[in-house]
Write a structure and sequence with these properties.
Structural class: mainly beta
Distance between the termini: 57 Å
Number of helices: 5
Largest sheet: 7 strands, antiparallel
Strand content: 35-45%
Shape: globular
Helix content: under 10%
Number of strands: 98
Length: 1473
């Protein structure tokens, strides 16, 4: 019948079907052959008796030319190397045998002869390695894979690359996308029904700006990627996060997943050029990653089953699309699924509209059980005769019994479970009764009327198969070993047994794919596990070939009177052999032909339309209708909308108008604001409280459905409020009204998930952004210890994976003997918890999209050495495990202060034997290297260092030089690409006593950062007041300059200063009122706003004014006198500022990037505490947080809504030169480069920015920057190497008395490296992508040990000459800004190490108040060791919001920890809250 998959040793070999026979003069002929191993893959060539069988262990390939009667091995194929065999789906004679190596085999004569072909890489194991063109047989895509194994963790890391052939591998395959890895490629025309579009179109998933799934993009090409383009999936703009492509009949479906959600979007095309998003009913809950299955669909629509429970005890809902694949309606709820995504669903072959499903009758009970598999599913079988519109029970003939049958989730047959091309004949294993019983309690049932009625055919479960177009049914017992096979010649009414000659357990039963042959093949195994293949030949069993009068006109559906009935708009019939005639059809390899008679339309030809559901036998609106563009401009308007019905997709009835559009009233929420009003509006909400304790934006990821702007907030009275429209309306969830909620924990990697903790084990959670809230139970009450910052830790890529820290044996208080912090873990989103590690301070998941080379389950824990209370004699060690510490605990460091993950680095602050601190870094979680500082730069153990940033593939580290309170400052060092070798970037950088460092990276532009330096370091060290100057870098810290002042102030007057004493200075983190107010936004490219002054030094903030730049900090403009809070909206097209010092009743706004300012009065004076919008800065709504003037017992939010200004979305044409475009392409420049050289970091980028004179709104995220090309290397692509420093002339020279770095160490770090270069004084900036040109980092090439022969071969005759080559190409990930637009992930932070705590401390120092000292401030404490007297609860004292504004996580609070030796502050990648 169909292709047999792998024969598992424990189950059946992806089994097949099993038929039988009843009355005949002659019995079938049986041949058998014993084999050494089971078949791994076994298939018939279509329309032929030729079979190929690949043995499971030996890899031997066998071939039969006569339906399995005789077998021969294919000698040319080497054993043990064969991986699998593949039949060409559109060339019935061609097959491929792929090996584990690079040499493979192809046959074009059904396996009779084989030729070799070579590929550059072995085949991938991640997907089908071959992709075929439906009309061009020689066009094939081959995907290969290269893998490396981690020596410590034993994990494999693989990358794929795709190649193509146009002649079926007669010539060598060529790279498809030169030099780039792929994540799945396909021909657009990979199914016979996909006929539109270009014949040569290919789609590939490729890396985007970063090699992470959330940045994957799809590209299309019509010339094998000589040229390519990124299609606009949403109809207007490309979308990143494409994680899958699939061909479904006449459709191609792209699955998209964005950062911050596990919800996915489906985009559909019928021509590979024009795409639409698939829309599901608003109440369905969204498509979750790994939680939907695209089913075997019809040519006229797509069918999808969506998981509606946990995967542990899976239940789904079935949806069917309209004819263009974009709008889905619900067919039936409660479908039965398994945890692998298989669904009990099958369409009957050859008969349109008949579908069998199994449903879970107690689906609601299963849902409420929250994944408890002890709640047994009660399964019933249903059948539909109208494509899933309605479902009925399976009825047993001449009985009132209801039949339930085993389906796909318990597959015992290959291919289809119930049907075959044999018209109308179905077989199944099942039982009668209320519910489906176990498989071995089932019997064989047969239907010969396409499922309308069923009859018991044989007792016990059997494997079965159909032959001779349904004339022959064959079956063999599937519950035990047997030496009997049975067959029926009259649709299962009578059966004849035939002896096999040996007792076997059946593994598979099959025949030719179209079920037209009278020959069958049985694969079975004896008691001693000897495999046999039986050939069962029915030639001669039936006396004669059927004549025309032996056939009947069999209709697929009859009405209650037995008359032919319409099905899907037509009557469908076959000429089928009569059941009781003694003849064979003999139409070998000829599929039965269906005939149709079109019917008039009736109610049965319609189903409920999108957003409608059947209520009281009528389709009623249950969702929201979207009016056509331009309709519904005022109250009372009406529009032409759906009647509630649509013709069932594929139904071809004639006449009928039930789906005719009708007039509908415009709903309030459908009214479109008129663009001409130009009005801004506001709405306020007052709360009975004295302060906002914490609030969090839950921004919608792009792949998630819905447009809500959700915020969750807790007041100082522990009351929870939620808004879904960014402050327009607040509600208090009824589930939480009487609960004491002591902390809110959003999942920083999934914005749909929030946890609400109480003092007890009881907690509450939502997985749908607060729409529904459920109760859960933790293993113990969450910890509130002073030395533990977070009670919950979330996995960066697996939302279900959680670590819980609770207090154990603490019933008598924290001072009780044995009381300690205990960690637990869950891989089922908290449904069950297991012990992890006791006596801990911190445990965290390590694996992330940035740290790909770490195992998915890797956990680091800071554990006390002894199982007793913290003390000087009980240090903290760092341990790791990727098996939950059950079997493989690894001690990485014996004594540490803490660790953090930052982008691609894991940084550990370890304590040396002399009690001084050292920094170690790793990119794989197993190999750590000491951080090497410049030799003239020693760090005393009483000082501190702060990890600032690593988004540019290098660590920026602030090292405190002067720790005296009130006079703190230090130097910023910058690492190489693996975080181990540091050079001085800039000295005397300011920090304050609680750990903030005046260092901030600009979001959205590469390499731009601003610092404040202490201009009088010597005087300051002696107690003088610090004098600060602001400096900026445009090349990632290689050079720093003063900020250029504006020509005049906001009033047009010149500044009273000149020359070097006249520059712009801005208040950084140390002097901001709210340190979360970052200068820039990842979506407002080139814009920065800050408060400061023009002069020689920075003055007090109260004396400052507000400044703005549009060109990344090259030029500045004073926009307002006085200090203001600021916020960006609609990707920078709206800027709002508000007075930060005095109560006010107005905001100022600009619609042209600060060129002109307008005032909006919101009617009441409030003291503004914060100004916020959604983290990506794409909204046109803003929220003021504060308190009404003169009312200390009230707090207030005021939403300022700019959406009324216009309803016109900005247009991006395909041609960037189109004058009608609402956007300009802006290219950043470097102040040291001339206008003709705009290469920054080795490439040229252009960003889309809205033209200042346009009144449209920007809307969703803009396309990624355009890469104009890679540039040749220039001097600015290099920085000074380790132990070198730049002189006044700009040349890097070796520091006197120091030695050059040993570059040969690179060979030890990279075993595949062939050569290294002697130091030149320069090294590439890790961020640069330049190629060729001035290679200042290369001089004399030397061979790496063990690679001398390769080195000699490479350099050949030029031995001894100077060789120029790259030691290690550092191809950093581009477009930092585009990564940061989703900055709420909180991937920025700080580790501060050590520091004398002498002198009287501020109370703030004693409490963790969440640390920010990176580009966007979000550091969360890495708790220190012994005697830490800080705590999470106490952190609420000082503005304890963690990620609330546009940076979301990006603007968190500080956390500080004191120890005897110093302090360690940090933010790891999981510490966003």
């Amino acid at each position: 019948m169909r292709l047999l998959g792998v024969l598992s040793a424990s189950a059946a070999l992806l089994a097949l079907l099993c038929p039988s026979i009843v009355t005949a003069a002659k019995k079938p002929t049986i041949h058998k052959k014993e084999f050494h191993n089971r078949p791994r893959t076994f298939f018939y060539f279509d329309d032929s008796p030729v079979i190929l069988s690949l043995e499971q262990d030996s890899g031997a390939l066998w071939r039969s030319e006569n339906d399995g009667e005789d077998w021969k091995t294919v000698d040319k194929i080497p054993e043990k190397l064969a991986l699998d065999i593949y039949q060409h789906p559109y060339d019935k004679k061609t097959a491929f045998l792929l090996t584990k190596k690079n040499t493979h085999y192809v046959s074009s004569d059904r396996g009779k002869s084989w030729q070799t072909f070579d590929t550059p890489l072995p085949p991938t194991l991640l997907r089908n390695p071959l992709s075929f063109h439906s009309t061009k047989d020689g066009y094939i895509l081959y995907t290969g894979m290269s893998c490396t194994k981690d020596e410590i963790w034993g994990e494999w890391y693989c990358e794929e690359e795709t190649f193509y052939t146009k002649d079926g591998f007669d010539s060598d395959a060529k790279p498809l996308v030169e030099g780039k890895k792929t994540h799945g490629c396909m021909f657009s025309k990979s199914t016979e029904l996909f006929t539109k579009g270009n014949d040569y179109s290919i789609l590939c998933i490729l890396d985007g700006h970063e090699p992470n799934p959330e940045q994957f993009i799809v590209k299309s090409s019509e010339d094998f990627f000589k040229t390519s383009k990124e299609p606009d999936l949403d109809g207007s703009r490309p979308i990143p996060g494409v994680v899958g492509l699939a061909a479904v009949k006449k459709f191609i479906v792209a699955a998209v997943k964005s950062a911050g959600t596990d919800e996915m979007a489906l985009f559909v095309t019928q021509d590979a050029e024009n795409w639409d998003r698939a829309e599901f009913p608003s109440d369905h809950g969204g498509l979750k990653q790994d939680a939907y299955t695209i089913l075997e669909s019809r040519p006229y629509g797509i069918q999808v089953d969506v998981l509606t429970t946990t995967n542990k005890n899976a239940v789904g809902a079935l949806f069917t699309s309209n004819s263009n694949g974009t709008y889905f309606t619900r067919n039936i709820d409660g479908t039965n699924r398994d945890r692998n995504g298989l669904v009990d669903f099958e369409q009957v072959h050859g008969i349109q509209g008949i579908v069998l499903v199994n449903i879970v009758d107690n689906a609601e009970e299963v849902k409420k059980s929250n994944g408890n598999d002890k709640v047994e599913k009660k399964i019933k079988s249903k059948i539909s005769f109208d494509g899933g519109h309605t479902f009925k029970d399976l009825k047993v003939k001449k009985s009132d019994d209801i039949l339930h049958v085993h389906s796909v989730t318990e597959i015992h047959n290959g291919g289809r479970v119930f049907s075959s091309p044999a018209p109308g004949i179905l077989m199944a294993i099942g039982n009668t009764g209320k519910y489906l019983n176990a498989y071995n309690d089932g019997d064989l049932y047969v239907s010969d009327d396409a499922g309308i009625s069923w009859k018991l055919a044989r007792k016990d479960a059997h494997r079965y198969e159909f032959g001779d177009s349904g004339s022959i049914l064959v079956a063999i017992n599937d519950e035990k070993r047997t030496d009997i096979i049975s067959y029926s010649l009259n649709h299962g009414d009578d059966w004849v047994d035939v002896e096999l000659g040996v007792e076997v357990r059946a593994l598979a039963l099959t025949t030719v794919p179209d079920s037209t042959s009278d020959k069958f093949t049985l694969i079975a195994e004896t008691k001693d596990q000897k495999p046999f293949i039986f050939s069962i030949n029915f030639d001669g069993v039936l006396e004669r070939k059927c004549k025309s009068d032996d056939f009947e006109k069999w209709y697929a559906r009859l009405d209650e009177k037995g008359e032919p009935d319409c099905l899907m708009g037509h009557k469908q019939y076959y000429n089928r052999r009569k059941k009781d005639v003694n003849c064979y059809v003999g139409a070998e390899y000829k599929d039965p032909e269906v005939q149709e008679e079109v019917c008039e339309c009736t109610d049965e030809d319609y189903e409920c339309d999108f957003e409608f559901a059947m209520v009281d036998d009528k389709c009623k609106l249950v969702g929201k209708l979207t009016p056509p563009a331009g309709e519904c401009k005022k109250k009372g308007d009406k529009f032409k909308g759906s009647s509630g019905y649509r013709r069932i997709p594929g139904d071809n009835c004639k006449g009928g108008d039930k789906d005719k559009l009708i007039e509908r009233p415009c709903a309030e929420d459908a009214l479109i604001p008129a663009p001409s009003t130009g009005k801004i509006k506001h709405v306020s909400k007052t709360f009975d409280a004295e302060g906002f304790t914490e609030y969090y934006y839950l921004e919608r990821a792009r792949s998630a459905e819905g447009k809500d702007e959700t915020i969750v907030m807790r007041t100082d009275k522990n009351e929870i409020f939620i808004t879904h429209d960014q402050g327009g309306e607040w509600v208090q969830p009824k589930e939480l009204k009487d609960e004491e909620i002591t902390a809110i924990y959003p999942n920083p990697y999934n914005s749909d998930w929030i946890f609400f903790l109480t003092p007890s084990k009881k907690y509450f959670y939502t997985r749908d952004r607060g729409k529904t809230i459920k109760q859960g139970s933790g293993p113990r009450p969450p910890t509130w210890r002073d030395d533990i910052s977070l009670a919950l830790r979330f996995h960066p890529t697996k939302s279900d994976y959680i670590i819980w820290t609770g207090d154990r044996d603490c019933e008598d208080g924290f001072t009780a003997k044995g009381c300690h912090a205990m960690t637990y873990y869950s891989t089922s989103r908290g449904e069950s918890w297991l012990d992890l590690v006791p006596y801990v301070r911190n445990c965290a998941w390590i694996h992330s999209d940035d740290l790909k080379k770490t195992p998915e389950k890797l956990i680091f824990c800071e554990r006390y050495e002894k199982d007793e209370k913290p003390s000087d004699d009980n240090p903290i060690k760092l341990i790791a495990s990727d098996k939950y510490f059950i079997t493989d605990e690894k001690v990485l460091f014996e004594k540490i202060m803490g660790f953090a993950t930052m982008q691609e680095f894991i940084v550990v602050a370890a304590v040396k034997n002399d009690e001084t601190l050292k920094l170690d870094a790793s990119i794989d979680g197993s190999n750590f290297a000491d951080a090497k500082f410049p030799h003239n730069f020693q760090v005393d153990k009483q000082q501190a260092y702060t990890v600032l940033d690593s988004v540019t593939h290098a660590v920026f580290l602030h090292v405190t030089v002067n720790p005296n309170r009130g006079s703190e400052y230090g130097a910023i060092l910058k690492s190489n690409s693996n975080g181990t070798s540091y050079v001085l970037s800039i000295a005397d950088v300011n920090r304050n006593e609680v750990g903030y460092v005046d260092f901030e990276k600009m979001q959205g532009l590469e390499g731009v950062a601003i610092v404040n330096v202490v201009a009088n370091p010597k005087e300051s060290s002696n107690g003088a007041k610090k004098k600060l100057k602001s400096m900026i870098t445009h090349n990632d810290g290689a050079n720093w300059d003063l900020l250029s002042p504006p020509a005049a102030n906001a009033n047009g007057k010149s500044y009273d200063c000149r020359g070097e004493k006249c520059s712009l200075h801005l208040h950084g983190y140390t002097r901001r009122k709210d340190p979360r107010d970052t200068f820039s936004s990842g979506s407002a490219i080139g814009l920065m706003i800050g408060v400061g002054n023009v002069g020689e030094y920075l003055v007090g903030r109260g004396e400052g004014n507000t400044f703005l730049t549009r060109d990344g900090g090259i030029t500045w403009k004073e926009i307002r006198q006085g200090s203001y809070m600021w916020e960006y909206g609609d990707q920078g097209s709206i800027i709002v500022i508000v007075d930060e010092n005095e109560p006010t009743d107005k905001v100022l706004f600009s619609l042209d990037e600060g060129e002109r300012w307008n005032e909006y009065n919101f009617g009441q004076k409030i003291k503004v505490e914060d100004l916020t919008t959604i983290p990506s800065d794409t909204s046109r709504k803003f929220l003021l947080w504060g308190s009404p003037a003169g009312k200390s017992d009230k707090i207030i939010t005021i939403q300022i809504d700019f959406t009324g200004l216009t309803d016109t979305m900005c247009h991006i044409p395909e041609n960037d030169d189109d004058k009608e475009s609402d956007f300009e392409l802006w290219e950043p420049s470097h102040p040291y480069l001339d206008k003709d050289n705009r290469c920054l970091f080795g490439h040229r980028l252009q960003y889309y920015r809205k033209k200042l004179d346009r009144t449209c709104y920007v809307g969703p995220k803009l396309p990624a920057p355009k890469v104009l090309g890679v540039c040749q290397c220039e001097k600015h692509d290099y920085e000074c190497d380790f132990n070198y420093e730049r002189g006044n002339d700009g040349v890097c020279r070796l520091v006197a008395g120091l030695s050059p770095p040993n570059h040969e160490e690179a060979c030890a770090a990279d075993k595949n490296l062939v050569e290294w270069y002697e130091p030149t004084g320069y090294r590439r900036i890790p961020l640069t992508k330049c190629q060729g040109g001035k290679e200042l980092d290369k001089s004399v090439a030397k061979p790496c040990r063990g690679h001398e022969d390769e080195f000699e071969k490479k350099h050949g005759a030029s031995k001894g000459a100077v060789a120029f080559g790259v030691i290690a190409a550092i191809l950093g990930a581009a477009f930092i800004g585009w990564l940061i637009w989703s900055k709420w992930n909180g991937k920025f932070g700080a580790i501060r190490l050590g520091e004398d705590a002498s002198g009287e401390q501020s109370p703030l120092v004693r409490y963790p108040i969440i640390v920010i000292s990176a580009i966007i401030a979000v550091a969360v404490a890495i708790p220190a060791i012994v005697q830490a007297i800080v705590g999470w609860v106490a952190s609420k004292v000082v503005r304890p919001r963690r990620y609330t504004t546009r940076g979301s996580f990006a603007r968190g609070n500080y956390a500080e920890v004191n120890t005897d030796e110093g302090e360690l502050l940090g933010s790891d990648e999981e510490d966003e809250i």
